[in-house]
Amino acid sequence: MPDEVGSLEASALKRKERLAALREAKIKKKSEGDKKLPTPTFRSYKPADESLKELALPEADVEEITDKVKEELENEDKGVVMESLDFTNLAPKKTGLGPETRYCSQVGKIGKANTKSHR
Asked: Which of 24, 31, 47, 54 is the most buried (most CB within 10 A)?
C-alpha cells in the first residue's frame, strides 16, 4: 500500500508539471500572436495616407461590352437552333407521395385484422 501512495504522488507531481508547461506554452503563443496583425487590403476604398496606398489593389480593367451587345441584338431575330432535344429532361417528375398515401391500404388491412382478432 505505501508503494501505491508514493507512485500516486509522483504521478500527480508529473501531471502538475505537465499542466504548468502547457499553460506557459499557451501564454507564450498568445503573446507572440498579438505581435502580428493582418495587413488590410483596400478593394474599393482609396486611402489618403501614402503608406496605406501601397496596400490598395489596382482598379480592375473594365471590358467594353458594346460589341457583344450588338452581336446579341443582331442574332436575336435568328432564334436559337437546337440540334437535338432530350424529352426525358423536360418532363416533370412525379412528386414523391408521402408515407400516408403509400401505406394507406396496408394499414387498413392490418387494422381490420386487429379488430377481428380482438373479437
From this structure: 47
Element (H, E) at 55: none
Residue 42 has φ and ψ, to the nearest 5°, of: -100, 115
Burial class (CB in 10 A: 0-12, 13-18, 19+), 116: exposed
What is the rounded CA–CA span in Å between residue 6 and residue 14? 12
Q: What share of the chain is helix, strand, coil (3-state, %, to 5)?
A: 60, 0, 40
Q: 3-state DSSP call for residue 15?
A: helix
For the chain, what are the domain ranges? 1-59
* pLDDT (tens digit per residue) in 60-116: 887 888 888 888 888 877 776 666 777 777 776 666 666 666 677 777 777 777 777
The CB-based long-range contact list for 58-66 (8 Å cut-off, 24+ gap) reads none
Is this model's pTM higher than 0.90 or not?
Answer: no
